[in-house]
């Protein structure tokens, strides 16, 4: 048990993604703050370590043949999956959510002025995420895929303009932290995505979509911060 207390949150989720639900329940950030140990997050959140580890253990021991082991995937496949699943999700869902938020501001903004702040935060996040994803798709992901091909063919990897892969990864990780903080603020402003008593159906649907968007973003960031990026750094070191 003692060793598990020093294990990082990201390591638990990397080994078994089902544990993400446990961390989410306790409002523990497993993506941007995935480098924190169980001891550290329990201390910060005021949770008994043994209780959290018990919940994690229950999930890990439960049989589920549908669990996807992203940690075993080749890096080029994982990069493609992130782009085609999570990047597309952001682009597709953000358009609808922005429309709904604009409607809520027009109809309910007088009684709920926090909607304007939520709308501004979400719109700013979408702009930043769009630029962030483009950098990954044009610069970082192609280099990772080239490294995979080079290793398969036992070839050298051309030196990229950005130097070490650690440089763009550091930038992407920093931007992940910014988005994580932005959505924590949105979560607080929405009372953890709970519509007010006078909220209409559109209100409830919009908040439900915002919650799903944040959950998808957490998975997106986890796959990069805790699996793709560390393995890309390790792969680059094999060439040197």
TrEMBL record:
Keywords: Cytoplasm, Iron, Metal-binding. It is found in: Cytoplasm. Its main location: cytoplasm. Residues 85-232 form the Hemerythrin-like domain. It comes from the Bacteria. PANTHER family: IRON-SULFUR CLUSTER REPAIR PROTEIN YTFE. This is Iron-sulfur cluster repair di-iron protein. The lineage of its organism: Bacteria, Pseudomonadati, Bacteroidota, Flavobacteriia, Flavobacteriales.
